[in-house]
């Protein structure tokens, strides 16, 4: 009876999300300039800073038509930042899944690179797991796990090129208005061609250490994979405390 109830709730939630996805703003794929992003973020003001990562920072921005966005600005002084920008552009412009973060536009100038992404009002899963001010009920936790699993399954088996995210962790799982989870940050993702073969992803991914009942003390997950002929098989993965 409990499983049936959860299934019904899940089905209802999926319908609501699908309706929302079909009403994306007209801003989608509109080209934006550096000046527009400066205005939208109030000069990349620290008050608009949502977070920082290995290759740059993410700011909340609001365009003149009132649409809120997330602006990921790459620090081109860092080695690998330009490649990360290109990788995310390639990935996000081609993937189509409701549980993967959507790209709205990008700004690519000689000395400035940025992605414009859907803004996620409820922030990252990390905030909800490790803050005293936020909490998740059991149904929300189950739905988030299902969302993330659906995104990973799509990357491995539904996308045209099998893909390993390589840095899946709570800070890279973002939550929208309805607490639907979206996997983000594909800067070090690994695309596997037909002849690729690897036994372990050697990346800059955050390393998580399992400490027992309290979960990871570094808030991250380690993923190990066996990959042959484009097929991905999970060898070992420590699961975050969702």
Automatic annotation (TrEMBL):
Pfam families (alphabetical): PK_Tyr_Ser-Thr
Keywords per UniProt: ATP-binding, Kinase, Leucine-rich repeat, Membrane, Nucleotide-binding, Receptor, Repeat, Serine/threonine-protein kinase, Transferase, Transmembrane, Transmembrane helix
Principal location: membrane
InterPro entries assigned to the protein according to its UniProt record, in alphabetical order: Kinase-like_dom_sf, Plant_receptor-like_S/T_kinase, Prot_kinase_dom, Protein_kinase_ATP_BS, Ser-Thr/Tyr_kinase_cat_dom
Binding-site list for ATP: 72
Enzyme Commission no: 2.7.11.1
Location within or outside the cell: Membrane
Occurrences of domain Protein kinase (ranges): 44-242
Organism: Prunus yedoensis var. nudiflora
Protein's name according to its UniProt entry: non-specific serine/threonine protein kinase
Catalytic activity: L-threonyl-[protein] + ATP = O-phospho-L-threonyl-[protein] + ADP + H(+); L-seryl-[protein] + ATP = O-phospho-L-seryl-[protein] + ADP + H(+)
PANTHER family tied to this protein: OS04G0122200 PROTEIN (PTHR27008), PROTEIN KINASE DOMAIN-CONTAINING PROTEIN (PTHR27008:SF585)
């Amino acid at each position: 009876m409990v499983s049936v109830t959860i299934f019904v709730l899940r089905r209802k939630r999926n319908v609501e999300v699908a309706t929302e996805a079909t009403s994306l703003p007209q801003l989608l794929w509109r080209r934006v300039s550096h000046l527009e992003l400066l205005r939208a973020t109030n000069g990349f003001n620290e008050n608009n800073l949502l977070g920082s990562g290995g290759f740059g920072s993410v700011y909340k921005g609001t365009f003149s038509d009132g649409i809120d966005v997330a602006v990921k600005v790459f620090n081109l002084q860092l080695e690998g930042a330009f490649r990360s920008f290109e990788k995310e552009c390639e990935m996000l412009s081609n993937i189509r899944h409701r549980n993967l973060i959507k790209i709205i536009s990008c700004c690519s100038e000689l000395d400035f690179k940025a992605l414009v992404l859907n803004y996620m009002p409820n922030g990252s899963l990390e905030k909800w797991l490790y803050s005293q001010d936020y909490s998740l009920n059991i149904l929300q936790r189950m739905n988030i796990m299902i969302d993330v699993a659906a995104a990973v399954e799509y990357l491995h088996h539904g996308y045209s090129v099998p893909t390993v995210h390589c840095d899946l962790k709570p800070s890279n799982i973002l939550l929208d208005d309805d607490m639907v989870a979206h996997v983000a940050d594909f800067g070090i993702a690994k695309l596997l061609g037909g002849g690729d073969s690897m036994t372990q992803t050697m990346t800059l991914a955050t390393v998580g250490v399992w400490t027992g009942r309290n979960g990871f003390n570094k808030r991250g997950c380690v993923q190990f994979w066996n990959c042959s002929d484009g097929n991905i098989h999970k060898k070992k993965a420590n699961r975050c405390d969702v």
